[in-house]
Amino acid sequence: xxxxxxxxxxxxxxxxDMAREEDRGKVADYxxxxxxxxxxxxxxxxxxxxxxxxxxxxxxxxxxxQSISKVFALTIALGKVGDQLWRRVGHEPSGSAxxxxxxxxxxxxxxxxxxxxxxxxxxxxxxxxGSRPTEAVGEILRFTRHLASxxxxxxxxxxxxxxxxxxxxxxxLANYMRAFGNLDHAAEDVLQVYFHQCxxxxxxxxxAMAGRYLMAGGAHPDTGHNVVSALRARRINALMMMCGxxxxxxxxxxxxxxxxxxxxxxxxxxxxPGVASLAVWSPGLNDRGNSQLGALALQQLAVATGWxxxxxx
Length: 313
Ligand SMILES: NC(=O)CC[C@H](N)C(=O)O
What we know:
Strand content: 5-15%
CATH class of the largest domain: Alpha Beta
Mean pLDDT: 96
Bound molecules: glutamine
CATH architecture of the largest domain: 3-Layer(aba) Sandwich
Largest sheet: 5 strands, antiparallel
Number of domains: 2
Structural class: alpha+beta
CATH superfamily of the largest domain: DD-peptidase/beta-lactamase superfamily
Strand order of the largest sheet: 3-2-9-8-7
Distance between the termini: 8 Å
Helix content: 40-55%
């Protein structure tokens, strides 16, 4: 899948094309720490199964990974409670916005999947598991550093604080689920964990590195040990494919054909199992809260490389 490809040339061309795009979407402004990010940024990083890294554009500029952290948090929670998790959160696409509350009443406080906010808040509750919020945040940070083999990854406290001050909807989701008995801890404590995981600040290079276990059947390429089983990695990829872009998941699949997870910071993590782990960043979002140029760049990459889980190998 990679022989004969000049990936550096492909990525440079994509970065050049994206720099010329005028319709860049709109930077998320409902989180104070994100509103001021320059929409002209564009970065892309691709790490291959053999460990080689290819980058273009602002691949070394840190950005707020926001909901991409839901992939890593889900991985931790599955490690803690295994398939019991699926009693508290579903694995179906929602077809609604990432922060929607509408399904929760009809579905008795059980969120559709772990990648919408309600589902991720349940996942945070599982990770909290009786410890203090700061301990749970530390666990998520250490885990993410371990995945990327990079101790330089940080949490942006200003972004976390800004979300706390403006996160009324997330507070509503948490309290609503608590009323259904689907939250074990106080909403404030669970959201402290959730807001801090969303405030993880990473570069495209670090994010692509962190996604390697999903490319490698659950194994950590640097240690050879399994982060998760091959079956669990496949299921996380399935969830990314079906639910990773909220009500834009069908569109992303249609255009790109890779499991992918977006965040309102403008990042996307995408995986081609056995082939590559990819990260792209462009802060402007489309009307569903997904990176506008991020998806376009991945679409261009999928055409240039033939990479898609939906193509014959
Ligand atoms: N889609 C996202 O990235 C949303 C995450 C953001 N922290 C929120 O809760 O609203």
